[in-house]
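Observation: inputs received (chain + phosphoenolpyruvate).
Thought: call the complex predictor directly.
Action: predict_structure
Action Input:
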Amino acid sequence: MNLFVANWKMNLGGRKSLQLAEELIDSLPEPLPGEVVLCPPATALFMVGEKLKGTPLQLGCQNIYHEEKGAYTGEISPSFVKEAGALYVMVGHSERRHYFQEGGQLLARKIKVALQWGLQPILCVGENLEERETNRAWPRVKEQITEALVGFEEGELKDLVVAYEPVWAIGTGHSAQPADVQEMVYFIREELVNLRGLRILYGGSVKGDNIKDFMELPDIEGVLVGGASLDAREFSRIVNWEKN
Ligand code: PEP
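Observation:
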């Protein structure tokens, strides 16, 4: 089933998150043409989770810590995320890789703990501009996936989702070329992950005007949306792409 993930990043506090969740409940098409996942900031997670109860919308978290509890000041336990009602968690978003030096086996540990808590991990991968321009996009994505999935048995990863998000396309207004996206996601599916039923999303400046270009790609089953998910109307256009 197609998956539409709204990443609100650190843009909305509790009240505004709740307001946007309400607007989306009112404006998204019924029945939903796929799974829709809202990822508010951690402080709004519980409230938005309560609001989504009884609706077809799902809750996701933008990040988790790789331990369940203890002296880890400021971190977000997977058990708290689960308690808030989340079903999904993003792992290794490029902003976490860049600003918080996340990567490598830390992400494998996050994926492991997410799965233990029944949270479906959305593993984000993607090359930066320099890597793209010097033909190092493929080895970079290969490295990110190999590191994050080290030590897993195939059966453990049935709930894994991969989001291909070229860093240079995130928040810039310059989305990737659909043909390049297809090449990369085919590579991810066939060469790197090779899991039956794996869902791969595209992320990077997706809007109502370009969503069709990505959803029509044979190996894409959804999108991860940042900026355009902060506007209920625009995000509804994205979710409702087939009717636009
Ligand atoms: C993102 O947050 O992962 C993202 C793709 O953002 P934007 O849609 O704003 O490029």
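Thought: report the result.
Final Answer: The chain has one domain: 3-243. The first helix runs from residue 14 to 27.
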